[in-house]
Automatic annotation (TrEMBL):
Its EC number(s): 2.7.11.1
Biased composition (Low complexity): 335-366
Lineage: Bacteria, Bacillati, Actinomycetota, Actinomycetes, Micromonosporales
Organism domain of life: Bacteria
Binding site for ATP: 50
Natural source organism: Catellatospora bangladeshensis
Region called Disordered, residue ranges: 313-366
Annotated protein name in UniProt: non-specific serine/threonine protein kinase
InterPro entries documented for this protein: Kinase-like_dom_sf, Prot_kinase_dom, Protein_kinase_ATP_BS, Tyr_kinase_AS
Keyword Kinase: yes
Residues annotated as domain Protein kinase: 21-279
Length: 458
């Protein structure tokens, strides 16, 4: 780890910075900064201090990067992003100027350590992928591009997934101040367009996300990239992750994220919805022989034990089929364009029938396409009621009910309807981001709204 044996580095365990933060030990390091575990002696809590190497403190550009990282994280305020408490410029004990970011101390292990042990089970990979894609969706909607999504910058702790290190984040549309990209990011996760000096765009995060998702599913990166020359090289069509039982929609999503052309990649919101839908699908079931009065029927029932039931026409066994170069349902999604409505992409919406029934009005055997507007509306309202029972504030619950009812009763079609749906999604994400609605209830309610969108477009 850099700086560990470098005695010219001026900070030591036990040092007190800004008369408040007592350094305990180093927990990470990079080319420009060291991460310290520290104690906030004012509030008596542990924090993480990201300290720009004081030997680089004369570089105003690097100090500005540190300030922008604090800006980006504070702008998100998302439960899956390590929160920022403060940004401070101070001096080391020997008088050198230093910039530091005070961050939430996150428990867990880097996703990179998990992958180093081998590929993750596809459901675990997709569960983690949903959380990363949701963070990117919120970041992009608020004008922030992370630009360094890698397994090292994702922390996993039980069900919790935290995205770290917004150290090279930029505003969408901001000019790239390094035409080579050599000082930004890890080559294997850098989108090819970064080398062209293009302005910061959300599609670069989606590419990196595709690399991470492929790596989680297979245990290896999709392309052989060791340096910047490899980033610039055209590696041909993206490989399909060959994983048993992987839903075809997930395999198609991965290859879509890895498209060389930025406009051919899906937006983060769409990626999140595809992955949620994959998790919502029931796992493969086996027919249980019913009681029968004749030997013939019993024989058929016994035979049925060997016949798996497919839960949807999207057969997981077909995941190895290569999608076309331009995957239907993806692409033509420039970073500034609105996300397509769930009604336009049925496979990208969570199926309410994949969960325990939340509404007496919904037919237990109904498929998502069979739901009426009334049934979908009732399911969404039942989810809000359940969230309220779990502690959701009554005023927030009322606001969400009004949004669902307004959407259900709206006569808008086409683009106006798409805009209304996106407005509801944005409100749900806002409530999750501020902590008034749990991420689980937020994902569930999103699935209900997607079902309502499909019903209205039918």
């Amino acid at each position: 780890m850099p700086f560990m044996t470098d005695y010219s580095y001026p900070l030591r365990a036990g040092d007190l910075l800004v008369e408040r933060y007592r350094l305990i030990d180093r927990i990470g390091a990079g080319g420009m900064a060291v991460i310290w575990r520290a104690r906030d002696e004012t509030l008596d809590r542990l924090v993480a201090l990201k300290v720009l190497d004081p030997r680089l403190s004369g570089d105003e550009r690097l100090r500005e990067l540190a300030r922008r990282e604090a800006w980006a994280v504070a702008r998100l305020n998302h439960p899956d992003v390590a929160g920022v408490h403060d940004f401070v410029r101070t001096s080391t004990p020997d008088g050198r100027e230093v910039a530091l970011i005070v961050l939430q101390l996150v428990a867990g292990e880097p996703l990179a350590d998990r992958i180093a042990l081998g590929a993750l089970a596809w459901r675990e990979a997709v569960r983690i992928g949903v959380r990363i894609a949701t963070v990117l969706e919120v970041a992009h909607r608020r004008g922030v591009v992370h630009r360094d999504i890698t397994p090292d910058n994702v922390m996993v702790h039980g069900e919790q997934v935290t995205v770290l290190d917004f150290g090279i984040a930029a505003r969408i549309g901001e000019p790239d101040d390094d035409s080579t990209g050599a000082s930004f990011g890890t080559p294997a996760y850098v989108a090819p367009e970064r080398l062209d000096g293009m302005p910061a765009e959300a599609a670069t995060d989606v590419y990196a996300f595709g690399v991470v998702l492929y790596e989680m599913l297979t245990g290896r990166p999709p392309f052989r990239v060791r340096g910047w020359d490899d980033v610039a090289a055209d590696h041909g069509p993206p490989p399909v992750p060959e994983v048993p039982e992987l839903p075809r929609a997930v395999a198609q999503l991965v290859t879509a994220c890895l498209q060389r052309e930025p406009s051919a990649r899906p937006v983060a919101a769409e990626a999140a919805r595809v992955l949620r839908a994959a998790l919502a699908r029931p796992q493969r079931r086996w027919l249980v022989p019913a009681a029968a009065g004749t030997a013939a029927v019993v024989g058929l029932g016994v035979l049925a034990w060997a016949l798996p039931l497919r839960d949807s026409p999207d057969d997981p066994g077909q995941a190895r089929t290569s999608p076309p170069a331009s995957t239907p349902g993806f692409g033509a999604q420039g970073p500034g364009s609105p996300t397509a409505a769930a009604s336009a992409r049925p496979s990208a919406a969570a199926s309410p029938s994949a969960r325990p029934a939340t509404s007496a009005s919904a037919s237990p055997g109904a498929s998502p396409a069979a739901l009426t507007v009334k049934q979908a509306q009732s399911a969404a309202l039942a989810t809000i009621a359940l969230a309220e029972q779990q502690g959701l504030r009554s005023d927030v619950a009322l606001d969400l009910r009004n949004l669902v009812n307004n959407l259900a009763n709206s006569r808008a079609t086409g683009r106006p309807l798409d805009a209304e749906i996106q407005s509801v999604y944005a409100k749900i994400d806002s409530r999750v981001g501020e902590g008034t609605l749990s991420p689980e209830m937020g994902e569930r309610l999103r699935g209900d709204v997607a079902a309502l969108a499909r019903a209205k477009s039918a």
